[in-house]
């Protein structure tokens, strides 16, 4: 028997386009996975050859069935397994030996079911690898490829006459969510090229399928539902593939809420948790992270309809003043700006509306022109021509259908000519249809014309906001190691570093710190203070007290010699009271610096993404403020500055309270900390500088802590 033509190529692109499939567990019994799956494969008219394998039947749904692999007349490209768990291994063994190069395993009860299952899973992966066979699943819902008319999936959502096809690919770590996604999309008139449920990812993983879609001529936009990243390198490589192919990668990830705050040594650990780091990695890799699968689906459909468009400023065009006002509020909250129309646009609109109505939003209900069609056409044309408008948002509350019809018909068609060739789709248009059943005719019309819509304002605004973020992506220069740093190989010792020790290390990396020294008695404290210059700050020094103010261990504004003596005694007493067993190493006497703003700069090694830095509003309220930006380390000055500009405190840095603060020095300090983080590299560590006090011309790290495992 001929070995499958796909064998050995190792190309997933080939695996996912089988010319023939065998289905083990095929039957007519609709209470079984294999029964429903076979019916769906037939229903959607898979163009290749189908080999049902069933020992008891000669035919199934009138096509020939085979008792086992050895009876097959040729080697199929793919085998689909929907059999009880114990039957999977022998079937994979037989299939692999025969030379079948792809196995799709629906069956569950593997690593999803504990240690014994994991062992069984490893065994089948081992068998497959030995024979060069690749596996999808196990524990997945299968594959739905409109591009191949292959519906290898048992879900009832497939009870539709035809698989709608559009250049949107989907990879999902949840099988059920994949089918929900399809169902919902189809009811909005949105189709797909391929949908893959990856299951346990025993062999092929999400990143493999993203790479496949990045290469796939039938796919322009990639959607993913992610629960966890299996292999970070592969994930990042897949993102690079998608970028290189110019295909947007959209993602929804579960596990957004951090499971409990960690009992934190550093503030960094509590403000830069796993999801925040994942989100930062997505931003760096150009992956558009969203919260909701509905919004992801609508954005994908919109990007397909309006390819290559960037969205910045929107025109809101509405048949309802109320809907328009709510839309403007929601856009404002998500940071999506409204367009300011040019005088020429206003003059064109003034023909149809009172001048008060031709700002933004435009209220169609308040038009003066009697002909709704003419007003709608003129308005859409004027907005399409307006150079300061990037998209049209049409929030629809209850309004007469004839008006709405005119607004829909006025949209330029993506199909410019009768031949069906793709024409200019114009600027992006999105409807938010808030009403219920009464708006079904409108939804039908929108589907018929391929105009994207959502059923809620929130979802629509989420789409616009994500689209805008996608358009704002920029690339940054490769970070260059600043001069004067210690050699990357000069590894700092492991351990817990208190303020003194960590500041000494930060200083070696060129981060400015305030002057100070540790006194062992009150006389020495006075000498230190006199040398430093009054007023001074005094702090308890103890390896057992990490958060010094919490135990009354910090005094600022210590003005003269008697105050130094008083404070010395008080800080010791406070520390002994709060942590009686604490080892106390003295009292730090340091220069008091005066600034306008307190920042935090932190870093840690993330188990998944490696060394990262975090920075934002600092001081004792850092967790409450939770204003932070995260980047992988090392980070260059351009990236750090761009991230700083996204933070609310940027306004203060930029001179909200008077002159601009020492922004360049802050950026430099963050860059230097990122190099320290990069040098600590593979070791588990966490560090904080909190606060970095920022003045008009300089900044200083006045507190620090570091733990290196
Ligand atoms: P903690 O261990 O509680 O974080 P810090 O050393 O950060 O102790 O001190 C607490 C606060 O005291 C800082 O957030 C800052 O507002 C202020 N502070 C500490 N050191 C100085 C200093 N050298 N100059 C000015 N203010 C300081
Ligand atoms: Mg502090």
From TrEMBL:
Superkingdom as given in the UniProt entry: Bacteria
Domain ATP-grasp per the UniProt entry, residue ranges: 503-539
Presence of keyword Nucleotide-binding: yes
Keyword Ligase belongs to the record: yes
Keywords: ATP-binding, Ligase, Nucleotide-binding
Pfam family, one: CoA_binding_2
MF annotations from Gene Ontology: ATP binding; ligase activity; metal ion binding
InterPro entries: Acyl-CoA_Synth/Transferase, ATP-grasp, ATP_grasp_subdomain_1, CoA-bd, NAD(P)-bd_dom_sf, Succ_CoA_lig_flav_dom, Succinyl-CoA_synth-like
Family: In the N-terminal section; belongs to the acetate CoA ligase alpha subunit family.
Protein name: Acyl-CoA synthetase
Species the sequence originates in: Paraburkholderia xenovorans (strain LB400)
